[in-house]
């Protein structure tokens, strides 16, 4: 009777697959970053110095570079035009640190050039935040109200905005990495085999976004299987 909510059902396998994918991607990026964080760049530039050179060569002088605590918490804030580099990147002269710093510069360059996927992703942020906050409450209310399929479907639709966000994130991140590798070569920050090492770091990091997208798709699929058809179990 009712929806399968409080006991094990076969769709839990979709959740487990998502967990495995996420853990594997995180392990890969950690091991790759740790490996190349022990390889010092020939230039001796730190992540912060490399970021500043790349930004200035790109004609960007209004983006501040700040240190942020944590490990691989690096990100670019387009609202404040601030590029934040983590403790393991900011003052490290390793291949890994420079690659990560260059990747975040790629986002700043995307912002300067009004890169359409980035602009679209930024537009989605408030929608996704709203959808994430209200999707499950709507589904639960729908279940409590004798299985109101309208509310349940609305909750699923709102949840799907998070999936769309993850999918849009993929080209944004891949493009930022391509820009990073190009700029590292053009500016002479890295040379020869160093660029290939940096590619390995950024490719490993990209797996986390692929895993996140796959996990969100699996979660949406599970919601559709459980609640989307309005079917009940006896």
From TrEMBL:
<dbReference type="InterPro" id="IPR007395">
    <property type="entry name" value="Zn_peptidase_2"/>
</dbReference>
<protein>
    <recommendedName>
        <fullName>Peptidase</fullName>
    </recommendedName>
</protein>
<feature type="transmembrane region" description="Helical">
    <location>
        <begin position="124"/>
        <end position="145"/>
    </location>
</feature>
<keyword id="KW-1133">Transmembrane helix</keyword>
<feature type="transmembrane region" description="Helical">
    <location>
        <begin position="206"/>
        <end position="228"/>
    </location>
</feature>
<feature type="transmembrane region" description="Helical">
    <location>
        <begin position="12"/>
        <end position="29"/>
    </location>
</feature>
<dbReference type="Pfam" id="PF04298">
    <property type="entry name" value="Zn_peptidase_2"/>
</dbReference>
<keyword id="KW-0472">Membrane</keyword>
<keyword id="KW-0812">Transmembrane</keyword>
<feature type="transmembrane region" description="Helical">
    <location>
        <begin position="151"/>
        <end position="174"/>
    </location>
</feature>
